[in-house]
Amino acid sequence: MNVEGLEIQNVNVSVIVLAAGKGKRMKSAIPKVMHEVCGRTLLSYVVGASLAVFPGDICVVAAEEHDEILKEFGQRVRIVIQEEPLGTGHAVTLALKTIDERFSEVLVLPGDCPLILPETLNKLLMVRRKGECAASLLTADVKRPEGYGRIIRDHKGDVIKIVEDPDASEEEKKVSEVNSSVYAFERSALEAALKEISPDNAQSEYYLTDAIQKLVARGARISALKGEEVEVTGVNNRKQLAEVRRYMQGRINDRLMEEGVTIVDPESAFIDWGVEIGQDTTIEPYVFIKGETKIGSGCRIGPFTEIRNSIIDDNCTIEFSWLEDSEVGEGCSIGPYSRLRGGCSLGKFVKVGGFVEMKKARVGDGSKVPHLSYMGDTQIGKGVNVGAGTITCNFDGERKYQTLIGDRAFIGSDTMLIAPVKIGDDAATGAGSAIYEDVPDGSLGIERSRQRNIYGWKERRKKRKEGRKGNA
Ligand code: UD1
Ligand code: CA
Description:
With 472 residues, the chain is of the alpha/beta class. It is 23% helix and 30% strand.
């Protein structure tokens, strides 16, 4: 089955993703499907999997427009608003009204099953077409069926209905085969069946699941495809959110390892869905890599490191450190215990050692900030050495100012660079100086009060002490 083949096969398919439910069991102020797993919303995974089967049309039934979805999928997805969540059957009815006549097949998915795979969706569409069925359901045998709709079959093994958990009898509750809420329908059959459903049930909702029973009553053919338990896992509460995250993380880490990344302890490598990592990079334990981050090859990241929305070039070492919105050139070494806040850009072979904080700092090739420094709103040239304890005093309580350091400059330990200030190329500052005026190229800036030595101090002090004892 090649991609082109799929494209042709599924042009008649319209996908409906259900995402308008309140998600009461999450106990949350944000809509359930907008909760994140590995840096991506539950809904994004489902929409992503749906788009991967190349349907002719796709709509998301939502309670409101979700900016993130519009941003991620743009024009490729239509949003249908369901103002009141009157049930999955009601949501599908609303969506069908917006779907063009030419779409004869409908694929329905709940927005809370992020582990669903495109291959499974394709299989389900095939099963329905091959069997010339009005509907095909994706089901699974699960260890804990509580909360799910149960698949009820007759003595011949044919599906006759789906019973929701709150409506199920004791006998029905024992059934371990559950409804995934992923279905392939023949559009006209679905439309007809939905006209017959009513909210006469424990939750007073229009259940999409009731459409199955209605189709069976009309003598229509129904088929069921049994899938994997993980794929059908719906997220209804925070515990399921954590379970799904663990599984999704496993998938992400497996993919990276297949691509040639060493992950020392996959259980403690928390890597977001979209992160890219090059070959022969090692991820040490307790590493968090988030957002739109790209890491080159041959790097060593961690242990205990967090990187957010950053680009790290090849052969870098980053340990016990925290980076955000920054770019790191080839061969740099960062940490242990350093922090690059937003807007930093390191050239090649830069060393940022221990206990260094940087913000909006551009550092040229081969420069070093090895110990205990704060570099904020700074441009550092190439081949610069910044001594221990150096601080850019970039804030006067009202405004922030720039510090410029030229190529090959040598900043003495414990220099206070009181911005705005410029240190020229090949210039230096004396240790302990508070530099508030520019230092020209090739010059030494030194600001320090003169040292006084008090000769014979120790001896005199000893005598004073002895005198006091004698008096006592
Ligand atoms: C649903 C199924 C159940 C199945 C389970 C699988 C029904 C009645 N039940 O139950 O058989 O085992 O999924 O996970 O369909 N939604 C709307 N509008 C609404 C109500 C819900 O868009 O008015 C959306 C929700 O946002 C959610 C999806 O539909 O993404 C499923 O709703 P949910 O409340 O999670 O249904 P379950 O009780 O899990
Ligand atoms: Ca659900």
